[in-house]
Amino acid sequence: MLTAYTQNGTPLFQLVEVHIRSHGATAMARNTDQLSNEPRSFVLAILEVYDRSSKLINGAFKGDHGFATAMDKAFGHLVNNNAVTQFTRNSAKISELLARYCDTVLKKSTKNPDELELEESLNRVMIIFRYVEEKDVFQKFYSKMLAKRLVAGLSASDDAEATMISKLKAVCGFEYTSKLQRMFQDIGLSRDLNDQFRTTSPTTVFDFEFIVQILSTGAWPFSERNNLTLPVTLERPVNVFRDFYHNKYNGRKLTWLFNLSRCELSANCYKNKYILQVSTYQAAILMCFNTVDVRTVSQIRSEVECEQPFFNQILLSLLKVKVLVLQDETEEVDEKDLENGSVNVKLNFAFKSKKLRINLNVPIRSEQKQEEDATNRVIEEDRKLLIQATIVRIMKMRKQLKHQQLVGETMQLLANRFKPGVAIIKVNFLWTLTLTTNFSNLIPLFAEMYRNSDSERVYETG
Questions:
Q1: Beta carbons of 348 and 367 less than 8 angstroms apart
Q2: Confidence band (pLDDT; 50, 70, 90) for 434?
Q3: Mean pLDDT across the chain, nearest whole number?
């Protein structure tokens, strides 16, 4: 048998594992900067290594189990430890890149493949996903991107979205995908609710299309940010829907997420008639100019009542595309120009565009950075809670356990979500011990019995 062959005492399948690791590391070291910033390039580079390795194992070694296991070990190491993780100094970068690649595949675009090609792309994604250690990071980024696709109606295919969730559920279980499935349910229920609203609300209240999506608290990775006072034109339908909803569901509370809302405004003040696709914040600022052509920065700010520095960033986005201009018509504007509240802002009647439908609702860089930071904070907090809950669950079942056994079982139970370090498990055990000491009515009391070393320490439930 080939598996019995050795070279300097090393079994052949171990040499194959070393070969795959070396080849993969070399492949990933090419264009590291590009691979770190372009999800598609990263995924294709990883899959190229996988395809070559699979061809080697299934061809030269006839799919032998020992060599297949060697390939799994090598590929698992490559996915989680490669030039990209070293370049970014972030082991979670792989999960983020894979989630972003899924977003490009599942998002509506002019280059969307047909259903069969889409299915094949998702199958290829799952090849990599099975080897990813930090699946909880993937979940957080994927859920944020899925939420944005659903809210903005940007999914290429509802069937493909449902298929991807099913694939994730098959690998990681129901709990991993429960919130993703709830998002889909909310979108379906919102469609029905909007149909009922249109049939029951008076048509004389507003003469434009008004659609509301009701998102369950806790299922969606969104939070309310930045206050806003709506223009009367937009406030009227909001109040009508609020009354409709409270009459239908007594006791429920609605929190409006204006940071996710968007509008289409018909601009009749320019030479050509344009349709401006804007955020609700941009709409509120632009509608300040319905009655006057010029306003000061302070007047606009007091009317929309949006917090700093977010207000300046929104106003700046409109100035940069020349829909609005400063009174002195400065060539280039930045946030410093808006620090003086007495600066005049006016409609730019000379505005021109080759497109009649113009999307002005582009992400703000600082907002994107805030979202990434918030996602990373949520990941860390969720990990702490998950480790603590796992420790409690183990001790409830085992009653008494040595330190090394507790660490080993904790790592084993968390393996399908992420790979915790021993140090972080210790820290969270001490936190859990403190919690149970202070609040013994919540979870069973832990008593420590110290011996010679951590490996001999025994934990026992009271």
A1: no
A2: low
A3: 83
Q: Which two tokens stand for residue 54?
A: 């699979």
Rounded CA separation 208/231 (Å)? 15
Q: Tell me if the pTM is above 0.70.
A: yes
- What is the spatial distance between Cα 308 and Cα 286, in angstroms, rounded to a whole number? 18
DSSP labels, 378-411: HHHHHHHHHHHHHHHHHHHHHSEEEHHHHHHHHH
To which H or E segment does residue 266 belong? strand 262-267
Contact assessment for residue 297 and residue 351, using Cβ atoms and an 8 Å cutoff: no
Chain centre distance of CA 206: 35
pLDDT tier, 69 (very low <50, low <70, confident <90, very high otherwise)? very high
* Residues contacting 360, CB < 8 A, separation 6+: 276, 277, 278, 282, 317, 318, 321, 323
Tokens 């025994």 belong to: 458
Q: How many CB atoms lie within 10 A of CB 239?
A: 11
d(Cα 376, Cα 111) in Å, to the nearest integer?
A: 31
Q: How many residues does the chain have?
A: 462
- State both tokens at 391: 């420790």
Helix (H/G/I), strand (E/B), else coil: 202? coil
pLDDT in tens, 87-118: 988 888 999 999 999 999 999 887 777 888 89
Share of the chain above pLDDT 70, in %: 85
